[in-house]
Specification:
It is a single chain. The protein is mainly α. The chain has one domain: Growth Hormone, Chain: A (Up-down Bundle), CATH 1.20.1250. The chain is 86% helix and 0% strand. Helix 1 packs parallel to helix 6, helix 3 packs antiparallel against helix 5 and helix 3 runs antiparallel to helix 7. It is globular and about 50 Å long. The mean pLDDT is 87.
Length: 199
């Protein structure tokens, strides 16, 4: 309950949940999209390989990057990149999908690392484990379950590509909303700091 009282944590959990719903839908049904385009399992295997390899440079550099760029901005970058990633299959080009898979590090790894670091920065030490467990439950439990059920249902109704487009729109809107909220929050913090300095 003490974790839920932290509005910043709730904000990030909400954003991470929406992000993971979109990522889960993308990953779960990408194989079907590729086979519908006429490609075989070998192509899907290569796509998965590109996805895994793209995480390595991000893992090596994320510590340095997080010292140069605020965690909040990294979260927004991951959301914007995921919007691009889920829309690339709409091009109908396998090259576009390969490019999308190369964004795995920029999307999933940055989101995961940034959320973990944000939890640690905004919770006391005794609540770190609780915060991480809650994040894991939201990301891999609630979000993944919803993304597969809703994505499968929508895919059957309107088609997978239209579902990808719709999910991308939702993530883009949420990312833009989060950017607006963060900007307003930072401006308030600056105003309070100026007022404090003046007094």
């Amino acid at each position: 309950l003490s974790v839920f009282k932290n509005k910043k944590i709730l904000f990030v959990l909400f954003y991470a949940c929406i992000f993971q719903i979109v990522l889960g839908c993308y990953g779960s049904f990408l194989g079907l999209v590729v086979t519908d385009m006429g490609y075989d399992n070998a192509t899907i295997g290569r796509l998965m390989c590109v996805s895994a390899l793209s995480e390595i440079p991000v893992l090596l550099c994320i510590g340095y990057i997080s010292r140069k760029i605020r965690i909040e901005y990294l979260l927004l970058i991951a959301g914007a990149a995921m919007t691009v990633r889920i829309w690339l299959p709409l091009t109908g080009s396998i090259a576009g999908i390969f490019i999308g898979q190369s964004l795995q590090g920029v999307t999933y790894m940055i989101m995961y690392y940034s959320c973990v670091m944000f939890m640690n920065q905004n919770l006391s030490k005794e609540l770190h484990g609780t915060g991480q467990s809650l994040f894991y439950m939201v990301q891999t439990g609630l979000a993944c379950t919803f993304s597969n059920i809703a994505g499968g249902w929508l895919g059957g109704k309107i088609g997978l590509l239209k579902t990808y487009f719709l999910y991308g729109l939702v993530l883009l809107a949420v990312t833009a909303l989060c950017a607006f909220v963060l900007r307003s929050h930072f401006h308030k913090d600056i105003a309070k700091q100026k007022e404090t300095d003046f007094l």
